[in-house]
Amino acid sequence: MDDRRGLTGSDRTVRIEVRRLGAVPDLAALAAASTADVVWLDSSLPDGAPDTARPRARWSVLAWTDGPFSTRFRHEARRAHVAVPAPAARWFGRSWSGDRPAFAVLADLLAATPVLPEPVDGCGFALGWTGFLGYELGRESGGPDRTADGHPDADLRFVDRAVVVDRAGAGAGVAWALALVADAEPAASASNRAWLRTVPTSSTGGGPGDVPTGLPAGTATGRVGRAAYEDAVDACRAEIREGNAFQVCLTTTFVLTGGREGRVAPGTDPHLVEYLRMRASDPVPFGAYLRLGTLRVASRSPERFLRIDADGAVTAEPIKGTRRRVADPAADAAVRAELSASAKDRAENVMIVDLLRNDLLRTALPGSVHVERLCDVETYASVHQLVSTIGARLPTGTSRAEVVRAAFPPGSMTGAPKSSATAIADRLERAPRGVYSGAIGYFSASGAVDLSVVIRTLVTVVDTDGVVRSRTLGAGGAVTWSSDATQEADEVETKTRSVLGAVGASTSWTVNM
Question: 0.85 cut: is pTM over it?
Answer without folding.
Answer: yes
